[in-house]
Amino acid sequence: MNKSIIAIATSCLLTLSSAALADVSSTINLTSDYTFNGVSQTGNDPALQASLDYAADSGFYVGTWASNVDFGSGEDTNIEWDTYVGQYFQLNEKIGLDAGIAYYTYHGDSASDTYNYPEAYAKFGYSSAMGNSELNFWYSWDYFGLDVNHYIAMVAHTVEVAPGHSVKVSFDRSTSADENKWFWGEVGNDAYNHYRVEYMTSWNDFDFDLALEDTNMNINSADTRVVLSVSHTFSL
To answer: What distance separates the 2 farthest-apart alpha carbons in the chain?
Structure first.
């Protein structure tokens, strides 16, 4: 996987027929903190994010997403811009599979592009009268451009507590296959755990997400925090 994914995604978007344009949407999101698996990507500060997506009736989709970032340490990387392409499969009445590949790019500093990396994912969903359960996996073979394998596994469950009001509980674990190239928090930590509980609702076409999350790392960017996000999706 390389930067050609961006060209493929852009080509798909530009060659859509007018009949398919009804399946194009854009989402604007304002969040009090951009956290990625419990780790702040904005120095514990707010973020403005936007996406552009195309979804076909067949389950195929392609899109792009961007956010401001701040990694501190005196460097000037300030934008993350991702592209993804995938396919959703409804395996039966209760089980769905979402599989695809994403490419993360970074901008703002002369060395920002050295962080770019690809990631493949597979997400299984199970729907029942008790709510929606998820079992999700992500894998990168060049995490943050360091030629290191990186894995994320997540389990989650969402339940509607009242009409239009849902609560989601999730647990995920991030693991580096080579702690000499990438470690978490302190030297020798090749993995960490992330816990998140979130409340989700909508009002006047705006989606609200209020989350409490924490990790088992003892660093300022991954400690206990409350994150509030407000988003709106436009059909184009």
So the answer is: 54
Q: How far apart are CA 159 and CA 142, in angstroms?
A: 35
Count other Cβ atoms within 10 Å, centred on residue 73: 6
| E-strand stretches of the chain | 24-31, 35-36, 39-40, 47-55, 60-68, 79-90, 95-107, 117-128, 131-140, 150-162, 165-176, 191-203, 206-215, 225-235
Nearest Cα neighbor of 83 from 67, 62, 114 is 62
**3-class DSSP state of 166:** strand
CA atoms within 13 A on the CB side of 181: 14
Q: Return d(Cα 53, Cα 65) in angstroms, integer.
A: 9
- How many residues are listed for the chain in this entry? 236
> What is the identity of the amino acid at 79?
I
pTM of the model: 0.88
> Could you state, in order of their start, the residue ranges of all structural domains in the chain?
4-235
Fold of 4-235: Porin (2.40.160)
Residue with the two structure tokens 């090749």: 190
| Distances 31 to 14, 25, 92, 132, 175 between C-alpha atoms, Å | 29, 19, 35, 24, 26
Using CA atoms, how far residue 21 sits from 17, 56, 86, in Å, is: 7, 10, 18
What are the pLDDT digits (tens) for 119-155? 999 999 999 999 999 999 999 999 999 999 999 999 9
Q: Which two tokens stand for residue 198?
A: 């979130």
Which bin fits 221, alpha (ψ -120 to 50), beta or left (φ > 0)? alpha
